[in-house]
Write a structure and sequence with these properties.
about 750 residues; mainly beta; 22-stranded antiparallel β-barrel; about 5% helix; globular
Length: about 750
């Protein structure tokens, strides 16, 4: 760890110790107590405290012995988080990178991410959920955030209750459900720079008091490109064109014990592609937020789904829950991967997704034991048809490329249980386990080399999959197919001890084991030799934490320190050809700490902040014959931090004016496991693939009058110039690397009416 990061690590540890010392006078150590008082007392919930379901039951976020950030819908708006790709602005040790704008975000939690893997058939090591429904396709993770109740971000492997592919953590987006009381709703319109128009709203009606309710919500965004394209007649990059809708029906027959929630959603996104910084000669005379691109594509994505959450209370102590879901979607994204006014590299990524999942569980609650047990079954399918147009692929001035097709299916079945047992009045033991069996199938795989492309007809020349040798060495066979199977099983789980003082302060130590299933290489299309099934990832995570409220409950805080033994991270080894081979990084070491706080000394002022410190390095890794042990994991800055405030400037009864500034800081990070190392014998220039430390300032001012709200906002106020993603293409034989710009400064205003 660098000296500055080490110093910051010690500062956070000192702050945690100081918080504990400050609380010490108010802490009464537990003594033996009568059986009737076995349960530790729970202080009354603080105003604005968020109730979460991270342990599959409703709890105050301050009662959960996990590193969890819970952000309310209002908190998301205050920090300028309108899309899942912006979520890093509100959560410590979370980074979001993307080469597809907001369409397919890559979440990095405490350094664990998909690294340099970009293929749509790969699942995220940070599990993404909507209302407890696991979303397998990363193309469905780029959702606009509207009409939410909250977002729960669980840091660290979740190997028991959120057990599918969560080596990094879990993000659960909780939508608003009908309250079964009266009617309500809102309508909001806004306008911002880049000619951006926004509109969203929701309406809820109660069809039978306390029994049947219906809620519908919609979100629309339309705006011009934020990256100017100087190519004559070229469209600007990174526009916005989003339409989403959601409807929820809740049925809770009086006295039946049933609570049925049915939620359906659909959405589409049609923005222009991201701006690309590629061929350096094409950058002459351009500003950072400008490109000169001939073939700017569109990032078209679709997502839809339906879910039924049925709970049945057998008794006050026992509840049965079933969650059944069916989701689908697609992506059809044309990506200019050269950033140049010429035909060099243009890729059309095209995939269709389907998934089904069923989870059934039982909750039991008594004074001494809180138990959850259940089974899970799910499958997901990806059908991919990618088209790689490479200028002069066949000979100087002769265009060509590769077409790739495959169908991937994955099946997962698991059984799990987790129990919290009160050993004493204040001390709780948590034990949980999950056994998972995963099967994967790679079917109907074929690829071929073609002549033409870039809008012209494509003539197949040679089969490349199945073909174990180089492109052009196998005769074209339209009937040739490549199939492969992959299977693995895993036991994961959790063990923790938590102690809750009578003051409400909670301390815990825990061990968690997480698992991400083995995967097929979706990036090999020049030869079937690179199509393989790699080992699953595993993480052994050790964590200690302290959270609670101090100073008459005006200050809430949460701190955690962690150590990870991380094995077999799945990442790409890109080689000339071009060919990418999926490999495992045998060993990595990750440790760090983080803290969050909210201080509300009065009803007119509140301040919130967080800091994350991280050290994530490879202990064993070789790519392109180069030893990379000791290098940082990609997308793993040593320091992240946020600081925000809500300041009431005016409150005279009918009118309330609130200023909410915030700043988000991210330290230096690399985009490639190579860091600054260049593999011998290649034209790599990995020094281009990094992002310096940066801070982005956001803010809003809101005027509230009765049911009318006017809001003015700004994001990235000082127009920080940062990259959202970077990929080594020089190592694949191209004369440039691939970089994507983040959004420039945006600002606007909106008006909302509630009813």
């Amino acid at each position: 760890m660098k000296a500055s990061a080490r110093a910051q690590f010690h500062v956070l540890a000192s702050l945690a110790a100081l918080a504990a010392a400050t609380a010490a006078p108010r802490v009464a150590l537990a003594q033996d107590a009568p059986a009737a008082q076995d349960a530790a007392p729970t202080p009354a919930p603080a105003v604005g405290e968020i109730v979460v379901t991270a342990q599959r039951r409703a709890q105050s976020v301050m009662d959960v012995p996990l590193a969890i950030s819970a952000v309310s819908a209002q908190g998301l708006v205050a920090k300028g988080v309108t899309n899942s790709a912006n979520l890093a602005q509100a959560v410590p040790n979370l980074q979001v990178s993307t080469n597809f704008g907001a369409a397919q975000p890559n979440f990095s939690m405490r350094g664990i991410s998909v690294a340099n893997e970009y293929n749509s058939n790969q699942v995220s090591p940070v599990g993404v959920y909507m209302d407890d429904v696991y979303l397998a396709a990363r193309a469905s993770h780029g959702m606009g955030l509207f009409d939410l109740d909250r977002v729960e971000v669980l840091r660290g492997p979740q190997g028991t209750l959120f057990g599918r592919n969560t080596t990094g953590g879990a993000i659960n987006f909780i939508t608003r459900a009908p309250s079964l009381s009266g009617s309500n709703g809102y309508a909001e319109v806004g306008y911002g720079n880049f000619n951006t128009f926004t509109a969203q709203g929701a309406a809820e009606t109660t069809l039978a008091d306390d029994q049947v309710g219906l809620r519908a919500a919609v979100n629309y965004v339309k705006g011009d490109g934020q990256i100017h394209n100087v190519y004559p007649g070229g469209r600007d990059a990174m526009s916005q064109d989003t339409l989403q809708g959601r409807v929820a029906l809740r049925i809770k027959p009086t006295g039946s014990g049933l609570d049925i929630k049915i939620r359906a959603y659909a959405g589409r996104d049609n923005p222009t592609g991201a701006g690309t910084i590629g061929l350096q000669s094409a950058r002459t005379g351009l500003g950072f937020f400008e490109v000169n691109e001939k073939n700017l594509g569109d990032f078209r994505t679709r997502a839809w789904g339906v879910a039924a959450n049925v709970s049945y209370e057998l008794s006050p102590a026992v509840t049965l829950t079933s969650i059944t879901s069916y989701d689908g979607g697609s992506l059809d994204m044309g990506q200019n991967a050269d950033g140049a006014p010429a035909d060099i590299l243009f890729i059309n990524w095209k995939s269709n997704f389907r998934q089904f999942a069923e989870e059934a569980r039982i909750n039991y609650s008594s004074d001494k034991l809180k138990l959850v047990a259940g089974v899970f079954y799910g499958w997901d399918r990806t059908i991919t048809d990618n088209d790689f147009n490479i200028g002069s692929a066949l000979a100087p001035g002769v265009n060509g490329g590769f077409f790739q097709h495959f169908r991937q299916s994955r099946f997962s079945i698991a059984g799990f249980t987790q129990g919290d047992y009160s050993l004493t009045r204040n001390l709780t033991l948590t034990l949980g386990g999950r056994y998972t069996s995963d099967k994967a199938r790679y079917r109907d795989g074929y690829a071929y080399l073609f002549a033409g492309g870039f809008g012209a007809g494509e003539t197949p020349l040679a089969t490349t999959v199945p073909c174990a040798t180089g492109p052009g060495t196998c005769a074209y066979d339209p009937n040739a197919r490549y199939n492969l199977n992959g299977n693995n099983n895993a036991f994961t789980g959790r063990a923790a001890l938590s102690y809750k003082w009578d003051s409400g302060l909670l301390g815990y130590v825990s061990y968690n084991r997480g698992y991400r299933s083995g995967a097929f290489n979706g990036g090999s299309y020049t030869s079937s030799a690179g199509i393989n099934f790699v080992k699953p990832e595993t993480v052994n995570a050790y964590e200690v934490g302290l959270k609670g409220r101090l100073f008459d409950r005006t200050l809430s805080f949460s701190t955690a320190a962690f150590y990870y033994d991380y094995s077999n991270q799945q990442l790409q080894d890109t080689r000339p050809g071009p060919v990418s081979i999926l490999v495992n990084a045998p060993k990595s070491e990750i440790y760090g700490a983080e803290g969050e706080f909210t201080w509300t000394p009065s009803t007119r002022f509140s301040i919130n902040g967080s800091v994350g410190l991280l050290h994530a390095t490879y202990k064993e890794l070789t790519l392109q014959g180069t030893n990379l042990a000791g290098n940082d994991l990609p997308f793993a800055p040593h320091v992240t931090a946020q600081l925000g405030a809500d300041i009431v400037l005016l409150d005279n009864g009918p009118d309330r004016v609130t200023l909410s500034p915030n700043v988000a800081y991210a330290g230096h990070q690399y985009f490639t496991p190579f860091n600054l190392t260049n593999a011998a014998g290649t034209a790599q220039n990995n020094a281009e693939l990094q992002q310096d430390a940066n801070a982005k300032v956001n803010g809003q001012i809101t005027w509230q009058h009765a049911n009318l709200q006017l809001r003015a906002w700004i994001k990235n106020a000082f127009n920080a110039r940062t990259y959202a993603y970077g990929l080594d293409l020089r190592g694949a034989g191209f004369p440039y690397n691939f970089l994507v710009q983040s959004a420039p400064r945006t600002f606007g205003a909106s008006a909302r009416v509630t009813f």
